[in-house]
């Protein structure tokens, strides 16, 4: 039996796919909508092409868990980050053009190999993670729609 979990959300954004894509591939724009407790750092240089590496660090007072990521798939309007650390899995961001703008789909698929961390996550953090993903999409929507007006 697989212990893989999937969290998936989507949001309609009144901006074209190019603008929406910039929001999840441009590091400065990402920091405008990412959870303030989450920091994204490039490994060497920022690169969103296949093979590009970065790390996501959760800024906690006593310890800072880190996910090492690598771009697994990249096409216009799509990026899939593979990650390893306290989670193993992938985070897919995909733009789906709509008549009113862009539907942004975020699919977070993961396993937690350590049973103790898995227990703690499921008990305390699973619902918070889903809520945070929804809040991040709302913030990303604001950034993209603001950029769309400026452009």
Structure report:
It is a single chain. This protein is α+β, with helices and mostly antiparallel strands and 151 residues long. The chain is 34% helix and 39% strand. A seven-stranded antiparallel beta sheet has the order 1-7-6-5-4-3-2. Strand 5 (78-84) and strand 6 (88-98) form a beta hairpin.
- The helix fraction, in percent, is 25-40%
Strand order of the largest sheet: 1-7-6-5-4-3-2
**Proportion of beta-strand residues:** 35-45%
- Helix/strand-derived class? alpha+beta
Biggest sheet architecture: 7 strands, antiparallel
State the total count of DSSP E strands.
7
Features:
alpha+beta; 3 helices; 151 residues; 7-stranded antiparallel sheet
Topology:
Blueprint: E1 5-13, H1 17-25, H2 27-33, E2 38-42, E3 53-58, E4 66-75, E5 78-84, E6 88-98, E7 101-111, H3 115-150
Antiparallel strand pairs: 1-7, 2-3, 3-4, 4-5, 5-6, 6-7
Brief write-up:
The protein has helices spanning 17-25, 27-33, 115-150; strands at residues 5-13, 38-42, 53-58, 66-75, 78-84, 88-98, 101-111.
């Amino acid at each position: 039996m697989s212990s893989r979990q999937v969290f998936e959300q989507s949001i309609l954004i009144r901006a074209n796919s190019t603008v929406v894509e910039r929001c999840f591939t441009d590091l400065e724009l990402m920091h405008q909508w990412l959870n303030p407790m989450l920091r994204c750092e490039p490994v060497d240089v920022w690169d969103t092409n296949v093979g590009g590496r970065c790390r996501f660090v959760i800024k906690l007072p006593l310890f800072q868990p880190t996910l090492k990521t690598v771009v697994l798939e990249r096409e216009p309007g799509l990026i899939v980050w593979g990650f390893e650390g306290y989670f193993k899995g992938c985070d897919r961001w995909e733009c789906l053009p709509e008549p009113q703008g862009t539907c942004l789909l975020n699919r977070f698929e993961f396993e937690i190999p350590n049973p103790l961390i898995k227990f703690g996550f499921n008990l305390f953090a699973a619902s918070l993670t889903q809520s945070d993903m929804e809040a991040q999409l709302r913030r990303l929507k604001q950034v993209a729609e603001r950029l769309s007006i400026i452009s």
